[in-house]
Amino acid sequence: MLNSARSTALADNPGAPMQRLADQLSGLTPPHAAAEFAQARPSPAVEAAIKRSAQLAALAAKRAQRERNRTFAGSVVESFVSACSFVPYALVALILRVVVARVFFINGQAMIDGPRVPISIPDLISLANLKFNVGFSTAINTSVVLPFEVKASTFDMFLTHYAAVPMPSTLAAYLASYGAFILPVMLVLGLGTRFAALGLLIMTAMINLVMPEAFWTSHAYWAAMLLVLLSRGAGEISFDHIARTMSHR
Predict the structure, then answer these.
(1) Terminal Cα distance for the chain, rounded
(2) Is 180 exposed, middle or buried (CB count within 10 Å of its CB: 0-12, 13-18, 19+)?
(3) Dihedral over Cα of 147, 151, 153, 156: its sign
(4) Residue range 40-76, pLDDT digits in tens
(5) What is the distance between the alpha carbons of residues 234 and 241, in angstroms, rounded to a whole number?
C-alpha cells in the first residue's frame, strides 16, 4: 500500500524528487559562496577581447555611416576625375611640344643668318567648309631662316650678356644658335623627343643663369613642360611612336 501511494504521488508531481535534491544542495552551499558567485567578473583577457570587439563594431558602424552619407558633390567630383582620365596623353604631349618649341625656335631665328624659306599653309578649314562661311582665317604665311651661319651679333651677345655661361663664348654661341633651330623641330616632329627636351632644358638652365629674375615668369613654365616630355615622352602622335611600333613587329 505504501509503495502504491508513493507511486501515485510521483505520478501526480513528477518534479518533486528533483526539487527536494535542489533544496538539499542549496542547504549545503554557504551563503557567502553564493554571493561571491553572483558577483564574479570575467578575466582581464576576456574583458580586453570584449572591449576590442566593441571598438571594431563602432568603427564598422562609422565606416558604414560615411558610405551612406556620401554627398552629391563628392559624386560629381569623382565623375569629373573619371572624365578627365579620358583625355589622351598623346594630345597633351603634342600641345606641350608645339608650345615650348615655338618659344625657342622664334628666339633662335634672331641668332642665325641664311636663306629665308617662305612657308604657306592654305586655309584648310575654309576649303573644307565653304558652305559654312567660316568667319576667321587659319591660313599660315610665314618664312623660316635656315641656319647657314651664326650672326656676328650673336657672338657679341655671348661675349657680353651671356658671359656667365660656364663654357667658351664662341662654343656657346654655336650650340645655342643651332640648338634653337634643330631641337624645336625635333620636338614638334616627336623625333628623339627626350633628347630634344633634355637639350632645351639645359638651354633653359643656361638662360636662367643670366636672367634669374625671369624664372617665375617664363623659365619655370618652360622647365615644367620639358620635364613632362622628358619623363613621359612624345606620346602616340610622334615619329618616336611610329619607330617604336615598327621595331616591335
Answers:
(1) 112
(2) buried
(3) positive
(4) 566 777 777 777 888 888 888 777 777 666 665 667 7
(5) 8
| Closest C-alpha to 188, from 243, 237, 242, 119 | 237
Written as nine digits, the cell of 35 is 554571493
Query: Hey, what's the cell of 133?
Result: 562661311
Residue where the block lists cell 610665314: 142
Distance CA 74, CA 120 (A): 50
pTM (whole model) above 0.90: no
Label residues 84-99 b or e (16+ Cβ within 10 Å = b): eeeeeeeeebbebbee
Cell numbers for 206, please give them. 643656361
**What span, in angstroms and rounded, lies between the C-alpha atoms of 170 and 182?**
18
Mean pLDDT of 217-238: 95
Greater model confidence, 156 or 68 = 156
Reduced DSSP (H G I as helix, E B as strand, rest coil) percent helix, strand, coil of the chain, to 5: 70, 5, 20
Q: Which of 41, 40, 38 is nearest to 29 (CA)?
A: 38
∠ CA 246-248-249, nearest 5°, is 70
Cell 544542495 locates to 25
Measured between alpha carbons, how far is residue 52 from residues 57, 65, 66, 130 in Å? 9, 20, 21, 76
Containing H/E element for 91? helix 89-109
